[in-house]
Design goal:
Blueprint (H helix, E strand, L loop, with lengths): L1 E12 L4 E12 L3 E5 L6 H9 L6 E6 L2 E5 L2 E2 L8 E4 L11 H11 L4 H14 L15 H13 L5 E5 L7 H18 L2 E6 L2 H7 L2 E6 L2 E7 L6
Parallel strand pairs: 3-9, 3-10, 7-8, 8-9
Antiparallel strand pairs: 1-2, 1-4, 4-5, 5-6, 10-11
Helix pairs in contact: 2-4, 3-4, 4-5
Length: 230
């Protein structure tokens, strides 16, 4: 079964004057690491927003986990019901909450009991190497530490699919490369399907099992199995 399917999806903005996607079809299987690679404005982030449920396709359909979630201008299943994790380019951490508070927020929203929240938060902080920073707020953390918190916040909800929108673009090269390896380690640990967006060719080749190359709202090529051995 394909975990994510886009079938003939098109999307425009500004009342139809700006075409973001033009009849795009894409199928992603369980456990794949698919990286969408392309320049700014090619439509790659629009695909993430459509899969996440933040916007609806003008035409075409989207399925997640074998269930139709959007079709022809309608969001059928809202974002919170799609069981997806997402790491944004700006990370979107709550500045007034501690590391623990940021990670706990989604668990509370899902009604997870306190005892289980404590265990999940402890375990995920250990996994991302942030156990000693649980009481700090985002402004007290480095860029790399904030990135780890954003990953922990997404993964603590145990999503089947993780969406990542240029999450490493603001980091220096050394830290960027280190966190690429961290993402691969966590994907191996949790076995989630990864849909990742970047404009960085080296980043794409390091992470992906399949690279989808986009330009001007269309898929122009695909390359398979370029990720290095772990």
């Amino acid at each position: 079964m394909k975990i994510i399917e886009l079938n003939s999806v098109s999307k425009t903005y500004n009342s139809g004057s700006a075409r973001a996607l033009d009849n795009v079809s894409l199928k992603i299987g369980r456990g794949e690491r698919v990286v969408i690679l392309g320049p700014s404005g090619c439509g790659k982030t629009t695909i993430l927003r459509l899969v996440a449920g933040f916007i609806a396709p003008d035409s075409g359909s989207i399925s997640v986990g074998g269930k139709l979630v959007a079709k022809n201008g309608r969001v059928i299943v809202p974002p919170e019901k799609r069981h997806l994790g997402m790491v944004f380019q700006d990370l979107a951490l709550w500045p007034h909450l501690t590391v623990k508070g940021n990670i706990e927020f989604g668990l509370k929203a899902r009604g997870i009991a306190k005892a289980e929240r404590v265990i999940r938060i402890r375990d995920i902080l250990d996994l991302v190497g942030m156990a000693d920073y649980s009481r700090r707020k985002p402004a007290e953390l480095s860029g790399g530490q904030q990135q780890r918190v954003a990953l922990a916040r997404a993964l603590v909800l145990e999503p089947g699919v993780l969406l990542m929108d240029e999450p490493l673009s603001s980091l220096d090269l050394e830290l960027n490369v280190r966190l690429r390896k961290e993402i691969l380690r966590l994907q191996e640990k949790f076995s989630f399907t990864l849909l990742y967006v970047t404009h960085d060719r080296n980043e794409a080749f390091d992470i992906a099992t399949r690279i989808v190359i986009m330009d001007k709202g269309s898929v122009i090529d695909e390359k398979r199995n370029f990720a290095p051995d772990r």
